[in-house]
Amino acid sequence: MFTKSSKALVAWGIFATCFISYVLFLSGHHYSIDGMVMFQYAKALWFNHSLKIAPAIRWGAFEHAVPQWSIGLSLAYIPLLALLSKTIFLGNSLIHTIPDPASLSYSHDLLYDPPYQYCSVLNPAITAISAVMVYLLGIELGLTNKRAAAAALTFGLFSPATVYSKLDFAQPMASLFLLLNFFFLVKGEKTRGVWHLIAAGICIGLAILTRSEFMIIAPTLAASVFFMPPRPALRTRRPTGPLTQSLTFGLAVSAMVLLNQAINFLKFGSWLSAGYPLSYYLVFDPQHWLTAFVGNLVSPGRGILFFFPVSILSVVGIKKMMKTHRWFAGTALTFLAWALLFYPIWRTWDGGICWGPRYLIPTVPYLCLFGYLALPVALNFYYKSVVGLLVGIGAIATLQGMLFGFDFYGSLRLSSEQWQEGLYHFSPVMSPLVGGWKELLHPATYDIKWFHLDPSTNVKIIFPVIGTFCLILLLRSWFHFFLPSVTKVRSFNMPDTSNSSSK
After folding, report:
1. Helix (H), strand (E) at residue 35
2. Would you say 175 and 314 are in contact if contact means Cβ atoms under 8 Å apart?
3. Which of 76, 229, 241, 372 has its Cα between 20 and 30 A from that of 109?
């Protein structure tokens, strides 16, 4: 099915393989107060034409009438809500109803909002597109078609990004916009095209609309555009070229930042508001920072090296990229360093009650690409074994997150102080990778929608059956795609008698 020379067909194959896989593991329910509020806010924006949720969302000690989170994910839900309101939920008040805190079933209504069961396909679609962008960016960086496809499928199927495709957080969407930003920057470096730089600026602006902390990295990216190396055919460009490039990118970013702050002004009454009460969330304490930094790297409960072991290869890949594409390697390395150094300052450095390295999801595409760039041109048995082992460990970790929800953390019975300290992440037995497999032999406990269908709706089992069949066909095609090419060697020991005449 996939030809080794057709990028478009390979890209579509990557999207289809990832998206079908994600939908087969969908749960159709929320996981976080963040996700619940952002989804209900989309209803308020579209159906009530209001920047306030009425009635306000209440969860524990918190009340949310105007969400502190960025508006990007809420805006992304709106087209799906608009479509559902004209089709499946036509005339059904559930599509625009915000659950009432006075209701006895309030928690259930928030967690299992019927319209969200359909809108939960948003992150699967976003992550599948991100996998395609990993492939296209890999091609731009010089990876072969096979290596770029392998990197994309590793990202899409065997990484923490896979698990976050079924969750309701904003990191997948921010990751996609950041990927698009890097893709257009690489294209802009090659062509010096103004539109590529404008597109890159808009994309990082959309990432800011999704997760406001990306505003911090924007000036560094603008400086990186200024230091783009001249291409051989462009050495005669005007001396003001770098400044023009940086201003082009910077103006696009500035326009998006202005839009973001205008929205915050309408929401919170201040042009300087970031939404979050930063005096509470930012913790400038060396011990806290060191704990968080080490935790995000190597703790069994949150460490990126445990949840995505392919990251280990990225160190070698960055070193190789410095020799072949120094500008991109430096820019991507700056972003990776920023992510590793910034998030430990955050009070909830572990991302709260979630799975794996939530805040580091936007770094996974580059760790994956650099990991495959680290490999030699010809893979011997040793390299194949190492890559197979690392991808296999990542696949096992990913499977745990796809099968089960966060009930594991409830079984730990931690105190509020233990939750805040986050030190439990350093205990292997308190990691879902170790202790989260207790119900493996009980499919009824799997956090998958298709395992919990009501008997009256068993007809819906048709979709997972068809999806599984399509996925098997796709995997068969990938098997043939990645098979080593066989070169027929003509034997010179046998005479060619094809044109000989009979005597």
Report:
1. helix 33-47
2. no
3. 76
